[in-house]
Write a sequence for this structure.
């Protein structure tokens, strides 16, 4: 009678466990979405954590797949930035794409705050056209996908504004 060796049985189970874990992590990675109340920071950390877990078991995710999943999980408010980043050649690395999302999140939060103030009666609510006026216009220096407004010393995303002036300077 032939009995299986206990050591080889344990190693087979270990390999199968790793394969199951790998499939579970890949499903989790590809189904990760940014929640409505979740910050970009927590969303990025969650994606990075899953990718690190996959790398630990020998299935590293490429930078381009990290960026594409980062974009795929974003809500509709980020659509213009998703289109901009996904059309860049070569794709930015994960950290650069995350940085652009942090800036966009800041813009969205400021817009939401202004809208809330305006809807609440608006004591002190600023109405901004999003452009520098003629008397406050200063040169905006193009630095790639982001621009730097020398008037207010802020970065803004070039695609955000039609003529390339910072929206905070109006």
């Amino acid at each position: 009678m032939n009995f299986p060796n206990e050591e080889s049985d344990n190693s087979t189970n270990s390999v199968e466990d790793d394969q199951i874990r790998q499939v579970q992590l890949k499903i989790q990675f590809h189904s990760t979405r940014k929640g409505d109340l979740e910050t970009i920071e927590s969303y990025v950390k969650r994606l990075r954590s899953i990718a690190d877990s996959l790398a630990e078991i020998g299935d590293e995710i490429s930078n381009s797949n990290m960026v594409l999943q980062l974009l795929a999980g974003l809500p509709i408010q980020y659509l213009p930035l998703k289109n901009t980043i996904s059309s860049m050649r070569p794709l930015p690395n994960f950290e650069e794409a995350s940085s652009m999302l942090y800036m966009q999140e800041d813009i969205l939060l400021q817009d939401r705050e202004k809208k809330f103030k305006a809807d609440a009666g608006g004591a002190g609510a600023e109405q901004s056209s999003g452009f520098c006026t003629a008397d406050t216009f200063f040169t905006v220096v193009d630095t790639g996908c982001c621009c730097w407004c020398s008037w207010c010393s802020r970065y803004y995303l070039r695609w955000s504004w039609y003529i390339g002036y910072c929206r905070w300077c109006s």
Summary: Residues 128-170 form one domain.
